[in-house]
Every structure is written in C-alpha cells, then in structure tokens.
C-alpha cells in the first residue's frame, strides 16, 4: 500500500492503537480514523508522513501528548485531534506548519498556554 493516497476508516468500531509503521505511508495525503475506539498515543512516526494534508483522529480514546513531530508535516492543512484524552502542553511545533488552516484540539485535557507560534 505504499502508493495509497487516501484512507478513510472513520465512523467504525476500530480498536487498538495506532502502529508506528503508519509513518511509512509517505504517499498518504488523507487519513481519517475519527469516530472509532482507538487507544494509546499518537505515534511520533506520524511526522514522517510527508504528503499528509488532512489528518482526522478525533472522537477516539487517544492518550498521551500531541507529538511535536506533527510540526514536520509541512503540507498539513487540516488537523483534528478533538474529543480524545490527550494531555500535556500544546506543542509549539504546530506553529511551524504554515499550510495549516484548520486545527481542532478541543475536548481534551491539554494544559499550559497557547504558544505564540500559532
């Protein structure tokens, strides 16, 4: 599946965690795993998905912090991590993604201040 461009598995009942191998899907531009029952953390390898423009992981049970590697996704336009159980501070690296137009982090347990890079 190395040439896969879009993957939409949203609104299912998928369980388990996101594998670190997800970072090998470098041709993927659209990834929707929202509205499932995924657990665990967002793997830092997600930062290797260089073609990603849309990432939707909302309405799951993801925990841990938002990985700073998201700042490496230079083509990212849409990021939705809302309605999970994410903790920690808001990663300032998200401000490095100049193409980002839509950012949803609501309904989590994030702490600290909003970085000035946003």
From TrEMBL:
<dbReference type="InterPro" id="IPR032675">
    <property type="entry name" value="LRR_dom_sf"/>
</dbReference>
<keyword id="KW-0677">Repeat</keyword>
<keyword id="KW-0433">Leucine-rich repeat</keyword>
<dbReference type="InterPro" id="IPR001611">
    <property type="entry name" value="Leu-rich_rpt"/>
</dbReference>
<dbReference type="InterPro" id="IPR055414">
    <property type="entry name" value="LRR_R13L4/SHOC2-like"/>
</dbReference>
<protein>
    <recommendedName>
        <fullName>Disease resistance R13L4/SHOC-2-like LRR domain-containing protein</fullName>
    </recommendedName>
</protein>
<keyword id="KW-0732">Signal</keyword>
<feature type="domain" description="Disease resistance R13L4/SHOC-2-like LRR">
    <location>
        <begin position="3"/>
        <end position="106"/>
    </location>
</feature>
<dbReference type="Pfam" id="PF23598">
    <property type="entry name" value="LRR_14"/>
</dbReference>
<dbReference type="InterPro" id="IPR003591">
    <property type="entry name" value="Leu-rich_rpt_typical-subtyp"/>
</dbReference>
